[in-house]
Amino acid sequence: MKEGTIMANKYDVIVVGSGSAGLYGAMNLPSDMKVLVLSKKDLTLCNSSLAQGGIAGVYKPTDDDTTEKHKEDTFIAGKQKNNPETVDILVKQAAHEIDTLIKIGVDFDKNESGELDRTLEGGHSRRRIFHHADATGAEIVKKLLEKVQTLPNVTIKDNSVMCGLKKTSTGFSINVVRNDVYTAYHCHYLILATGGIGRIYAFTTNSAIATGDGIAFAHNIGAEISHLSWIQFHPTAFNDHKTRECFLVSESVRGEGAYLLNNKKERFMQKYDKRLELAPRDVVSHAIMEESHATNSDNFYIDIRYKGEEYLKHRFPMIYENLLERGYDMSKDYIPIFPCQHYLMGGIKVDRNSETTIENMYACGECSCTGVHGGNRLASNSLLEALVFSRQAALDIAKKKDSAPKDFEEADFNFAPDAKHIPTGIKTAVRGILQRSYFVEKHLDEAVSGLEKIKELEKTILGGNYVPAEDYVESMAAVVCAKIILQEVVNGETP
Prior knowledge:
The chain is built from 14 helices and 19 strands.
């Protein structure tokens, strides 16, 4: 372990995160700005890469579909708690972002007529989901990364963990640990694109990066955090009753006609919503939990066998192969599923330009709260939001760049030579508390007692002399985020 600041590096803009939001933001910044993109793990390890279904949007308005209809569906899914201004931006910019993706080589599926294919997902009244088989997110991230790597003004560093953040008179300083070496970087503008909080739950569909780091650091320097308890639990995660990182059986499987079955292999959604399996995610997740209580069983299934092997292999190749590896054939077997923590609608509060309540610090993607999702995200609006609002950030920075300071204040990040590594077990404790307190359903007694336990863990972190390594960062973030979530649960602020 090497101690303290090794070298100083100065950039116009630092982007923390290499998912779709981080990469698209970097891509849209002016070419005369010096940009650093930091990736916590491998460059393609992000929640964006896990997005199966696709990206929603009205590419070419028709009599059948319009941006107004997309807006209406977004509000219905979001329980009318959406921000009208940002939803309007979202749906109207969709065509531009989809067109840009096509221009950089994203290979969206086409139908037999050679036109872009559109599928249907829960909550959508029209077929407006553009997809690359069932690996749309991975395709988008791949092509964005290839594009950004050609930009001479952009430097990308992988396996770089942000372990400190300070506001300065000229912008921001961040401390980064890479291969046990600590480096301070300084910038005039900062874009946080650090993803969600899925890994602070016991069962999640999220990648290893989704530990809430950016949200916690933003909170610690005074940024406003909004609706952190507005969490989406996806109804159809593969369920083997033991795997913590759950494989997602995409929304699009139901969009293409799959049925949901209870432990008796009977359809049940007709009891809960007239839209049946195509109801929004929160409705379906709550229906499964109610049916679970009614049947005293957590055995549920998704069934699309009737579509046949040839169709399923072509339409859902990744899902098909992943299920085969787990011993299930989509064309022959009922697939076990159960709700799982999936997505964060809240996060760092931002305005229409993705600027946080701290001047010149921006947030986009899942770590941000634009308000577009309201109380429940409409399927496949996440990739769209990441692109639209990272571009909003880039455009706003471009307007400001000529007035940026000419120098850089450099904050220090030294730590004591006798600092110790944080004790293990804190993240596991947080996961258990959240799982018991707030998983699809709220359990107020558990939330109250859980909040007190989280506060005790907070004292452990704040009162210790710890090395700011990755485990410390993730433990700190878990505790900070869990405290905010449970306080909102106790206060009745959940959607």
